[in-house]
Amino acid sequence: MIALVLFSVLFVCLLISVPIGICLGIATMSVMLFVDGAPPMALLARSVVTGADSFPLIAVPLFILAGDVMQKGGMSRRLVGFANSLIGHIRAGLAYVNVLASVFFAAISGSSPATVAAIGSNLIPEMEKVGYERRFSASLTAASGMIGVMIPPSIPFIIYGVTAEVSIGKLFLAGVIPGVLFAIMFMLVARFLLRGNETIAESTKDFSPKHVAVSFRESVWALLVPVIILGGIYSGIFTPTEAGAVAVLYAAFVGLFVYRDIRFKDLPDLLASSATTSGTILILVIMATAFGRVITLARIPSDLAMWLTSLSDNPIIILLLINLMLLVIGMFMETISSIIIMTPILLPVTVALGVDPIAFGVIMTVNLAIGFCTPPLGVNLFVASSISGVTIEKLSKAILPFFAGMIVLLMLITYIPAISLALPSLY
C-alpha cells in the first residue's frame, strides 16, 4: 500500500509538471498522512534536516559556481584554441577538436549541458565555416557533451556518492577510463561518418609547434584546474568538498586578474545564477532523503530484487534489465533526480548480485548521461539545438550513430567492471 500511494502521487505530480523536489515531498507526506502503519510526520522533518546536514553535499554548489565562473571567464574559448592547435590540422580535425575540447572542459565543469553550451557556442559556427554540416556538428557536440558528467569532477558522481554513502574520490577515479573511452568512440564514429566527405576542409591550419606553445601558454591556467583539483584530492591535501572551494577561488582569481574576462560587476549575476541552480538541486536532495527512507521502510528494494530474480536468476540478464530501466528513466527524468530516487532502490539489488557500489555508480551515471542525448528530455539536444538552429527532430536522427556507440560502451562498462575499478583500486 505504501509503494502504491508513494509512486502514484509522485507520478501524478510529475504529470502536472510540479517541480521534482516538491513532488518528492508531497509523495512522502501523502504516505505519512493517509497510510496506516506508515512512518510518522516527524520522520520527514528529521530527514530534511539530516539530508541537508552533509559535508560532502557542499561540493555541489561549489563546483556549480566554479563551472559558471570558468565558463564566463573565457576558459572554454582558450581550451578550444589549444585543442585546435594540437589536432586541428588533420583530416576531420575540427570534429576531433570538438571531442577533445569537451574532455578538457568536462574536467573543469562537471556538467554535461554546461559542456555543450561552452564548446558548442565556440565550435559549431567554426565547423560550419570549413564545410561541416551544421546538423553533424550539433549532434557531435550534444553527444560528446555527455563526457561532462564522467570526467571528474562530476556533479552526478557527487550526488551518487552522497546518496549511496561511498567515496566520491573513488567515483571520480572510476569515471576517468570510461570518459576517455567515450571520447575515443566519438572520434571514431565521427571519422566514419565523414569518410569520403569532400566538402570539409582538409585542415584548419598547418601544424605549428610555435602555435601550440602560444595556445598552451594562453590556456595553461585552465588546464591546471583538473591538476589542482584532482592532485589535491588524491594527495590528501584537501577533500572533494574543499576542492570545490579551491576551484571557486582559483577560477575567480584567473577570471578577474589573469584573463580579465570577468569584471567585479559580473559577480552578483554569476552568484545569483549559481545559487538558483544549487538551490534546485539541494531541495531535491533533502526531499529525496525522506523519500528514500520511506522506500527502505516499505521494503521496496527487497521486493524489487525478488521480482527481478523471479524473472531470471542470471546476473547478466538482471543487469541488462536494470540498464533498460535506467535508459528509459533517463529519457524522461533529469539525471540528478533519477540518481536520488533510483539509488536506494537499485543499489541493494546490484550489491546482492555482487556488483561493486563504485562500479554501479558509473553504470548508473552512464545510463542517465545517455538520457542527455535522447528525446523527449534530452537536455544536450535542446542546448545544441538552441546554439545551432537545427531542429530537435533532425538532431535526434543525426545523433543515432553516436547513440549506437554509447550503447556498445555501456554494455562493456556493465559487464567488464575492471574498466571502472582499475583506477579506484590504486587509490
Description:
The protein has 427 residues and is an all-alpha fold. The protein is built from 22 helices and no strands. The chain has helices spanning 2-15, 20-34, 42-52, 59-72, 75-87, 93-109, 112-129, 134-144, 155-164, 168-174, 176-193, 209-234, 240-258, 267-297, 300-311, 315-332, 335-352, 357-370, 379-388, 392-398, 400-415, 418-421.
Main attributes?
22 helices, mainly alpha, single chain
List the helices and strands and how they pair.
Blueprint (H helix, E strand, L loop, with lengths): L1 H14 L4 H15 L7 H11 L6 H14 L2 H13 L5 H17 L2 H18 L4 H11 L10 H10 L3 H7 L1 H18 L15 H26 L5 H19 L8 H31 L2 H12 L3 H18 L2 H18 L4 H14 L8 H10 L3 H7 L1 H16 L2 H4 L6
Beta-strand percent range: under 5%
**What is the CA–CA distance across the termini?**
44 Å
Number of strands: 0
Q: Rg from C-alpha positions?
A: 22 Å
Oligomeric organization of the protein chains: single chain
Note the overall shape.
globular
Mean pLDDT value: 85
Poorly predicted parts:
none
**Helicity level, as a percent range?**
over 70%
